[in-house]
Fold:
Amino acid sequence: MRLFVALSPPPEALAEVAGAVGARPERWPDLRWTGSETWHITMAFLGEVPEKALPELETRLGRAAGRHAPMTLRFEGAGAFPSARRARVVWLGLAGGGTAISRLAASLAAGGRRAGAAGAEGKPFHPHLTLARARPRDGLDARPLVEELKDFGGAPWRADAVHLMRSHLGPKTRYEALESWPLTGGG
Ligand code: 3AM
Structure:
């Protein structure tokens, strides 16, 4: 099964994001916009994981979560991967986590690796919420869109748990939360 670990922003924070996105999906029909019901912050991509690895994976992820403290985050700014000029992914940024959010992500990825989940090696962690993806593989010029979204700043919200998510790929990708662990460390 295809798995990743994510933060789930609270509904109020996601409502602000929806407000910021507004009617832009209609103006940018060449992008595949993510549905608000799928919005999350990916902390660690685990890739294909055999079902038999799940118990150990869950133990390790729970242990990692238990070593980190809750964080106060807010949505801020926007950008695109790999660049706004040839965007493949358009995103909103996340602020307030300092180094704690990267340390949590590294801990979760390490827990995944120890349980045999190969994940994504080498990519620097850049917390974001994916708003849209380009259809063509060579990307799309999203500079005006990123420019419009980049001044967005949301209210602070508390990230106090991580969730193990399963991707059900298809014409409309669906995510299923398999397990959650509170962030109970002292920071
Ligand atoms: O939450 P976002 O959209 O940023 O892009 C995929 C998505 O991230 C990412 O994992 C999340 C859940 O699917 N993802 C998919 N394949 C990936 C890969 N090979 C990947 N991240 C890194 N390497």
